[in-house]
Amino acid sequence: MENVWKNRIPRINEPAPEFSARTTHGPRALSDYHGKWLILFSHPADFTPVCTTEFIAFAQAYPKFKALGCELLGLSVDSNFSHLAWVRNIEERFGIEIPFPIIEDISMKVASDYGMIQPGASDTATVRATFVIDPEGRIRAMVYYPMTNGRSVAEFLRLLEGLQTSDQHAVATPEGWCPGDKVVVPAPTTVADARARMKAGYDTVDWYFSKKTLGTAKAKKKPTKKK
Predict the structure, then answer these.
(1) Per mean pLDDT, which of 25-34, 122-131, 187-196, 217-226 is the most reliable?
(2) Residue among 51, 70, 72, 98 flagged as catalytic
(3) Which of 105, 145, 155, 219 has its CA 20 to 30 A from that of 226?
(4) Catalytic: 178?
C-alpha cells in the first residue's frame, strides 16, 4: 500500500516541532511559549463559515484559556494579509475581536511538520488539527477534525483542565470529567497494594477501579475569641 504521508505526524509526549513564523501579531516561535501551555490549531481557510464560528468561539473563551496559563495560536496556509482582512471582517460583521495570533504558512512548512496537510482531505489546505502543548514544549494531546465539521472549544478547555489536574495530583480523569468531579486513582501495581486498596478510603468498586474527590480536606475552624 502506497504511503500517502509526506511527513510523520507528531506523537504524544514527544517535543512539538519547532517553528518560527510570521503572524498577525508579529513574528512567533515555539520557544516564545516556553513556560506556558499552548493550543496550536489549524483551519482550512480564511473567510469560510465553519472556520469563522470556531474563531469566534476561541475568541470568546480566550479569557478562560488565559486564566489557565494557556495561549492560543491559529494557523492556515493563507497569507498574513488574508488573515488580517478576515480578522477585521469578523470584528466588523460579528462584533468579535480575535485576540490571539494567526500564523501565515504559505509554504506549508509548519502545517507539514505538524501533519496538518492530509492528502486524503486536501493537498493545499489544512484539516482542523489541534495540538495541546505543555510548558516544556511537549505535545500532550492532539485532535484531528475533517473540514466539514467544527470543533467544540469547550472540549479543549475541559481537556486542558484535565491535563493540568493529572499533572498536579498524579491522577487520571474519567469520561466526561469536569472540575469538581471525582478523579480516577491510578491502579495498584503490586499484590500488596491491590490488597490495601480496598481499605484505602477511596470510592472503590474493585481493586483496580477507585475514584476520589480532590481537595476534600476539611477547613480548619478559626479559634473563637475569648470574652
Answers:
(1) 25-34
(2) 51
(3) 219
(4) no
